[in-house]
Design goal:
The complex is a heterodimer of chains A (510) and B (180). Chain A is α+β, with helices and mostly antiparallel strands and 510 residues long. Chain A is built from 13 helices and 21 strands. Chain A has one domain: FAD/NAD(P)-binding domain. Chain B is globular and about 65 Å long. The chains are: A alpha+beta (510), B mainly alpha (180). Chains A and B meet through helix 2, helix 8, helix 9 and helix 13 of A and helix 1, helix 5, helix 6, helix 8 and helix 9 of B. The structure holds flavin-adenine dinucleotide (FAD) and iron/sulfur cluster.
Chain lengths: 510, 180
């Protein structure tokens, strides 16, 4: 017989959105069941084998792509979701985005949101990255940025005592990144939240305008079970939340629409002398441009090899110069014309039962991307690099500013971009009052009383910067609307609070 | 070409070849049995011997600079990747390896691993590096090859990379404080 679990709140997905909400609800003494498709991972499970980490922590082992396979869409799949894979970069929601969302019917009042950022920031220990963790490429990039008139800044990060190993995207084996698996989730569990790893939510059954039950599968045993809750919250991320709605036949014609991204690809630069940019945190400095964000990103060997353009011996030879190389990227915000659909054969077999993402950059966004990559190359050349390799399918090598126009020629279409992808998908269950909005301004799925969405999929547009802190702060704000619970002014628990207490300070601890 | 079109084309090709496949089923049935037995003998869980040959052939064509490492480990790592990945889309990667092997027959050539090194490179040059619409999906396979190759310890050492614990001045966590 199918097991039935009764609870007050069933939350699907334990990432940035789901974990924060689970904490506030559990803290308010609600019965909370947090379903997570991935496994539970501890720092000791993380190590230097990138392939193993990718298989263990990434959705589709890092091979999730769009339908045309010319774009990677990278997401996490473990307890803590994608937050376990972040570089720890934290940004406030840009004010123009907040205003734009309000105009689209998704109004997050500035004051309340500021308080949410303060609360979540204290749990995450958000502070500027300690310069002792900087990698040697950061200083050069900083010089390059200054030379072209950009203002470099160190990233704000959610770290404790980072040792600058450079492996953030594979999970922190030193337990120093205060992601959801180290903060919100254990904090929620301490208040009685039941976390169920390796449990995939599969389909919601709706009757008379309300969800009656959620069918789930235990991925360890293959057994099906049913969850009955007073309220259901989807926090499965920007591809999986709309996928669940589509599979359940909810919000037809709206769910899956309006996806946007921060897209990017890395540019590589070579210096005359070895700089060993792998010594240190791999994301140290950034600069805000009006239209995009320039960010240093120097990956460990396997990921670096994947992002390095070129074929054959040239690719191999370039990699033998790894110590002389440094890389960085530009985060390009796209329009919200992407779409999640179910595979046409999804009913036929489990093999086809998944979502497909349709996304090809518009001409305007492509033009913005070219502008970004030209600026990136300029920054590297100004930093003293002897050559720059932009992310083009056809290998291109620039040694002088006068050659920047070659980027325009080499990058005409999305398929011309090497290593193109996104780790920041947004939308698909957009909130607001636009025709394609799936949720109303209170996170509720239109037409279904007890169903809410609380993750990056409610974002009506791309936010141009790394989103984890914004997603968590929006979830903090959403707790009242979704759970009717009150939220404390300050949170006096969790690892960051303990660190501050040990030091007798109210400042963030480093 | 999209993933859906590729799946549809593979299905149409399979259907078109069905009569021949039925007629020759004793032959390929035995072939499949042998492949499976070969997989067991090699201690692999997911990678069939023919896919392993394809993978190594791509490595030989694409990472020729390598003298030290050889490519046997690449198959071992790809097997780990394919067998550990429990996603509904995982089968696509296995399909991709098969298509990478037989793609040259579309341009009337021998399967990839049956070609000489120069012919393999010619195929990659003509059809993959330029990302022609028909073969575009196959260029994705390049990343699979690189993923398996460059995640190995020896390949990383060759690149001059020093793992964190072996770095000079690496501060052990105990010295900086453990977070609970
Ligand atoms: C490699 C990488 C680096 C990043 N770096 C940064 C950074 O430095 N700074 C930053 O701000 N952001 C960063 N991000 C982005 C950030 O992590 C994400 O935007 C954010 O975590 C998304 O939050 P979410 O709640 O929408 O989804 P996620 O955090 O992705 O959580 C969704 C969870 O739901 C689970 N799930 C999905 N479907 C189901 C189902 N059917 N049943 C049960 N569970 C399910 C998934 O397994 C996953 O764990 C990075 C992302 C990646 C992948
Ligand atoms: S760079 Fe710092 S936070 Fe990131 S994985 Fe290494 S020790 Fe952890």
């Amino acid at each position: 017989m199918t097991q039935v679990i009764e609870t007050d709140f069933a939350i699907v997905g334990s990432g940035a959105g789901g974990s924060v909400l689970a904490y506030y609800l559990a803290r308010a003494s609600e019965r909370v069941l947090l379903l997570e498709r991935g496994r539970r991972v501890e720092p000791d499970d993380m190590h230097g084998d990138e392939l193993d980490s990718v298989v263990k922590l990434f959705k589709d082992a890092g091979a999730q792509t769009n339908l045309t396979a010319d774009m990677f869409i990278i997401q996490g799949r473990c307890v803590g979701g994608s937050t376990v894979l972040t570089n720890g970069a934290c940004f406030y929601l840009p004010e123009d985005c907040r205003e734009d969302w309000a105009n689209r019917g998704f109004d997050l009042p500035a004051d309340a949101l500021r308080r949410s950022f303060a609360r979540t920031g204290s749990v995450l220990n958000v502070a500027p990255l300690d310069e002792r963790c900087f990698n040697p490429g950061a200083e050069r990039l900083r010089r390059g940025m200054q030379a072209v008139g950009l203002k470099p800044q160190p990233f704000l990060k959610n770290f404790a005592h980072c040792v600058g190993c450079g492996y953030c995207n594979m999970g922190c084996r030193y337990g120093q990144k205060l992601d959801a698996s180290r903060t919100w989730i254990p904090m929620a569990e301490a208040h009685g939240c039941h976390v169920r790893p390796r449990s995939q939510a599969y389909r919601l059954r709706v009757e008379r305008g309300a969800v009656r039950e959620l069918s789930c599968r235990d991925l360890e045993t293959g057994a099906w079970f049913t969850v009955r809750a007073k309220r259901y919250v989807l926090a499965a991320g920007s591809v999986a939340s709309p996928e669940l709605l589509l599979r359940s036949g909810i919000a037809k014609g709206r769910a899956g629409r309006g996806m946007s991204f921060n897209v990017g690809a890395t540019t590589v630069a070579e210096y005359d002398e070895p700089i060993e940019a792998w010594r240190g945190d791999n994301l140290c400095v950034f600069s805000m441009h009006d239209e995009f964000t320039v960010e240093q990103l120097h990956n460990p060997p396997m990921t670096f090899a994947l992002s390095m353009p070129g074929w054959y011996d040239r690719h191999h030879r370039d990699l033998q110069r790894y110590a002389y190389l440094s890389s960085a990227g530009v985060l390009i915000p796209t329009g919200n014309y992407g779409r999640v659909r179910l595979s046409p054969l999804w009913r036929v077999s489990r093999r086809f039962d998944h979502a497909e993402v349709e996304f090809t950059m518009s001409d305007d966004d492509m033009a913005l991307a070219r502008k970004g990559w030209k600026l990136m190359a300029e920054v590297f050349l100004a930093s003293g690099a002897k050559r720059v390799v932009p992310p083009t399918m056809r290998y291109l090598e620039l040694t002088d500013r006068s050659q920047l126009h070659r980027i325009d020629e080499a990058l005409r279409w999305q398929r011309d971009i090497h290593g193109f992808g996104s780790a920041h998908p947004f939308g698909g269950c957009n909130a607001g009052d636009e025709p394609h909005s799936t949720c109303d301004g209170s996170f509720r799925v239109r037409g279904v009383d007890n169903l809410f969405v609380c993750d990056a999929s409610v974002f009506p547009s791309s936010i141009r910067v790394n989103p984890q802190w914004t997603i968590m702060s929006v979830a903090d704000y959403a707790a009242r609307a979704i759970g009717d619970v009150s939220v404390p002014d300050v949170i006096e628990e969790g690892p960051a609070y303990e660190l501050r207490r040990q030091r007798g300070t109210t400042e963030v601890a480093r | 070409m999209t993933w859906n079109q590729l799946t549809a084309l593979s299905a149409i090709a399979a259907l078109a070849l069905l009569p021949i496949a039925l007629l020759t089923s004793p032959i390929w049935g035995i072939w499949l049995l042998l492949e499976r037995r070969g997989r067991r003998r090699r201690g692999r869980r997911a990678l069939l011997p023919h896919a392993e040959r394809t993978l190594v052939a791509y490595c030989e064509a694409m990472i020729r600079g390598d003298q030290v490492l050889g490519f046997a480990h690449v198959a071992e790592r790809m097997d780990r990747f394919l067998s550990a990945e429990d996603s509904p889309r995982g089968w696509r990667n296995a399909l991709l390896l098969t298509l990478m092997e037989y793609a040259p027959t579309l341009v009337l050539g021998l399967p990839f691993s049956r070609r000489g090194l120069a012919a393999r490179r010619r195929f990659v040059d003509r059809h993959l590096t330029g990302a022609s619409p028909v073969f575009r999906l196959l260029t994705f396979g390049k990343q699979l090859v690189r993923m398996a190759y460059y995640s190995d310890d020896v390949a990383r050492q060759q690149m001059g990379f020093v793992p964190p614990d072996e770095r000079r001045g690496h501060a052990p966590v105990a010295a900086r404080g453990k977070v609970r």
